[in-house]
Write a structure and sequence with these properties.
Elements (H helix, E strand, L loop, with lengths): L2 H24 L2 H28 L1
Length: 57
Amino acid sequence: MDIGKKTRSIGKIIEGKTKEVTGKVVGNKSMEKKGKAEQVKGKVRHAMEKGKHTFKH
């Protein structure tokens, strides 16, 4: 798995979690939803990279 892509996907997951928690703290539902969406996007990218790695070998 390419370390750069793995790092970016994990970064998206962390960034999304940060937005979600910040949204909960300040009571901003929109930010909370965007954070959850970013987490999902990061998890999907991470899974795709894992899948690519599996099929390469």
